[in-house]
Each structure stands twice: as C-alpha cells, then as structure tokens.
Amino acid sequence: MSTTSTAEYGHEADAGPDAGPPGRGGRFGRILRSPIGWSVTGLVGVALVAGPTATGPGPVPVLGAAAAVAVYALVMRRIAGRATPEIARSGAAREALLGGGIGLGFIVAALLLITLFGGYSFSWAGSGFMSVVWSAVMVQIGTAVTEELMFRGLFLQALEQRWGSGIAIAVTAVSFGAAHLGGAGANLWSALAIALQAGAMLGASYLWRRSIWFVAGLHFVWNTVQQLAGIPVSGHAPEGLFTVEAHGSAALTGGIFGLEASVVPVLLSVLITVPMLVLARRGGGLLPRRRARH
Fold first, then answer.
1. What is the DSSP annotation of 208-249?
2. pTM to 2 decimals?
3. Which of these, 10, 35, 214, 270, could form a disulfide with 99 (CB 3.0-4.6 Å)?
C-alpha cells in the first residue's frame, strides 16, 4: 500500500472545491464544497454524533465511532465529491493490526526505558480484570477512531489540498497538541510533546498508509496500554489494571500529565516518524504545495 501513487488516494482524481455541476447551490454551494467547507461540516458532524457517546457505558463509544464513520463517508462523498479509500472495509483489519503492532512496540519501548531508568514502579490494582479491560477497549476505540477521522481524515486532508502535505502535517500536529491542554498538569511542554510524538507521528503514518484504520490502530494501542498500565492518558487518570508510582524527574516520567509529557516517547517517536515520511515520499503519498488545489 505504501507504493500506491498519490493519485490513487483521490488527490489527482478529486473533484476539488468546485465539484458538481456549475452553479450548483450558488456561492454557498461552492463554499461548502471547498476544503474549508467540507472539513468544517465534517468536523461538526463527527463531533455531534461521537461527542455524547465518548464516555458512555459498554459499547456506546464504539457505536458513536461507527456513526462518526458514517457521517465522514457521507460528507466526503456527497459534499467533497470524492471517494473514501481511507475507510474502505477491504484490508481494514490488516491495516488496524499493522498500526496496532507499531503502536505496541512504541509504547512498550517507552515504558521499559522509563522503568529501567527508575521512573516507574507498578503494583496490581486489584480491580476486576475483565471489566477494566472491556471499559478501556470500548472507550479507546471510540477515541481513536473519532480523533483520527477529525484530525487526519478531515483536517489534514483539507489543509493538504490547499497547501500540501508539509504544511498539513505541521498544522495538524500543533493543533493536536493544543487540543490536549485540558488535562491535569498540561502546559506548553506537554502540548509540544503531544504535537511531536502523536500529532506528527500520526500524521506521518496517515501520509504513509493513507488508511484511517492504520492510524486508529496505532492510536488505540498507544492509549489503551497506557490506561491499563494505570498511567494518566494526557493528564486524565484512568482506572487501570495497575497502580503506577512515578519517581524522579518529570522530564523522565511526565509527572502528573503522564508518559506523554516524558522526553522518552518524544525521542522514540522521531525513530518512527522519519522513516514513515521517507516511505510516504517514496510511495508518492506526499502532495507538494505546488500541486495543491486552490
């Protein structure tokens, strides 16, 4: 999949901001069909269906994510006037597993390094195993799918069509970091750390694979392992299988914000992000600014 040309992902075949018959809907229609128009419409639509279900009981977050996928597909096909290979069911499981495997390697390496340097110690929390795992999986599936539809599916692709992949990944990375300023212990450093280790890496992974399922799989495993380990996820203390105690410098442990504010995953993320960008470039997955649509 990494060798598929940019055109096959809808960039060159995209109908663009003036999709549809000339004059359809007048000026409002042209605005709605522009990258800004369809991205804002999609962001609002996804937020409306997924927001109220994000922390619901049982499978409610997953049902909300499924509704968000349906809204995304509707906006892209009916308003943006483009196909949606990034959410194709064919190959979805393979992409999600591949992304999840990379995410697992990333989070395990970060946890092991911080623990080896004396930053974390773990003890069994004694909570019900199945109930904790079930809740974490349901919530994190909803979070991963919804955030990837919004940030990589809508926001990144809209910016990419206007200004190319480079600006798109930079702006979405910074925005992703800023969106996580609400957690306990959040500050400018934590926002920058999230922007680098998550925003840039997830953006690069999307540009490489052009699959929401791949990026959501990576995102899901990263969040879920943190939660089950008892580590705060972006400053939000979870109910996990373990209780974690942080020792030493917040630069190592991330402090009360959690592992995502540690320098360890920030440095490790560079080892993942750079190769992904190289592979995306080699496979024709990057849209230069000179070819971006206006």
1. HH--HHHHHHHHHHHHHHHHHTT--BTTB----SEEEEE-S-
2. 0.89
3. 214
